[in-house]
Specification:
- The complex is a heterodimer of chains A (about 350) and B (about 325).
- With about 350 residues, chain A is of the alpha/beta class.
- In chain A, about 30% of the residues lie in helices and about 20% in strands.
- The termini of chain A are far apart.
- Chain B is globular.
- The two termini of chain B are about 40 Å apart.
- Classes of the chains: A alpha/beta (about 350), B alpha/beta (about 325).
- The interface of A and B includes residues 252 and 272 of A.
Chain lengths: ~350, ~325
Amino acid sequence: MAKLDREPERGGPAQPLLIVKGLMKHFPVGSVLSGGRKLVRAVDGVDLTVQKQETLAIVGESGCGKSTVSRLIMSLLEPTEGEIIFDGDPVGGYRGIGLKEYRRQVQMVFQDSYSSLNPRLTIEESLAYGPVVHGVSRREASERVRDLLSAVGLAPRQYARRFPHELSGGQRQRVNIARALALRPRLIILDEPVSALDKSVEAQVLNLLMDLKEQFSLTYLFISHDLNVVQHVADRVLVMYLGKVVEVGPVDSIFAAPAHPYTQALMDSRPSMDPARRRTEPPLKGDPPNPIEPPSGCHFHTRCAIAREMCAGTAPALLNVGQSREAACHAVVPGSAFVASERWVTP
Amino acid sequence: MSRQPLIRARGLHVSFVSRDATIAAVNGIDLDLNEGQVLCVLGESGSGKSVTLRALMRLNPKAKTVMRGELNVAGHDMMALPESKLPALRGKVVSMIFQEPMTALDPVFPIGRQIVETIVRHDGVSKADARQRALDLLDLVQIPSAKMRLNAYPHELSGGLRQRAMIAMAISCRPRLLLADEPTTALDATVQIQVLLLLRQLQEELGMGVVFVTHDLGVAGEIADRVAVMYAGRIVEQGSVSSLLARPLHPYTQGLLGATVQPGSRGARLTTIPGAPPDLRRPMQGCAFAPRCPQAEESCRAAVPEFCHPAPGRTVRCIKVMETL
């Protein structure tokens, strides 16, 4: 019988746990009959690396492609193009790490705690499912379930035999986290894990995630729209807008002084908690544009406060702006044609 | 207009009765709101905040709901008002915006037609006049290319525009009281702040009273004049937004504030409130928060604490507050 222990490190501590190169996912929309198919470029060339035992957060508005990125990395979706390298091994194909083994080492927690559990299985059955598939005996699996439930702060005797509908939202999310841990993974993708929870429960789950990370030496990819939560949990943050990365870097320096105007606007959109310092003007006007027909050049230029003519023409590349940060904006490149370009006006 | 309060509730109880159980969702709340004021009702799921809001319009399902106490809205005795009088009130005197505009708007009619219908129904003007007013309303809520959008179906609009369309419909007949049930929770932060600013601006221009239900302290900080914190169907603390956020007095409010992730708390452990809210099917003895309260003692469980007034404009339902002051 397989013992299913945690895989040892292979590439050494300097080898990033996850490298994603040129990831693209295009969804066709509309029917052939209604004038040809169009493409939604949900993810349009994303590069990212996640170092061992760090937390990388992906932030952005709805429709920016952050959830699609997580599903591509989890290989729940087939990428249109791009490469995923896990601890030095390419994922899939006949040379690299096989999918079954990869999915054992990469697990995911979803936003909706109820729909991600099978309503007809007890908590114990749900948690034992993965280990049994991977060759652990049933007896050992149910022993493991008890350890897992204790690890996430649920008393095994009280909760193991219950069904998902008999638990509260916070308890269900703990079960989902326990299930993600059941296969002793190295990377956990957390897709908005606390967005559906009440504030007091959110704090409990965030504390739990921090403890587990320490206890099991985990690496997190944390997807969220809540910048306060991101600032609290993440080491590095990656900002997406309409399928592209606009800024990436360490949390501290990005939150202290964002380089990209979109990152700045996202931060300014947070409610202030201080009635004496209420905003009078919204940092951004309008909704995110339709991803089927994104604006030309820099996708953000239609909502950008400092956009120039040049921004509507050419898309900026993601360039190093110092302090191990990268940003995709013409304005931050010294000596670019941005300064000489005319102000962009809404046509 | 008279200076009588827009809302006056005294000992309001709302419970839902079914064959299996009686759920005491709202357990005796007192509420006052004057014209032109914004009150935020803050609480977690199950605290009774949405039920309270719906009770103000008598929107809770009538077959199952039992209401008790005193409730006066804009001069109308809501407890005694016959069912037949309610439609004239809803939309005209009191109107409401919901969390999910996609489910609140009718998917098979263009938004313009839905707004026109409301105006014709309440003000008896011609369709052409109503259409002109609908157009002005879409401009007022800052929907770009309003003329075209009048003929748009709800699914053709983005989330932010849908919420603006619903706000336009809610204010179409100049209500004196606007009820908002988490109207920005489903929106992105960048759009949420736009809608909050819009609501604040409309409220000032039209002089409406607003009751705004939310679970987000930050949202309350942006929009409220006063805040009422609810727990297990009771208001546990009330006060002006600045004093309440700066210095929460009830242990529950303190816990809620401590549990909220704030900028600059990086890496630190968040303070949490242990346990879970009580089961509202069972009658509660004493303070409902006592089982989770770090300061609770025997006397807390004996009787429901009376309101005390530790500072001007502040009321707190906790017996420990006076001791610690």
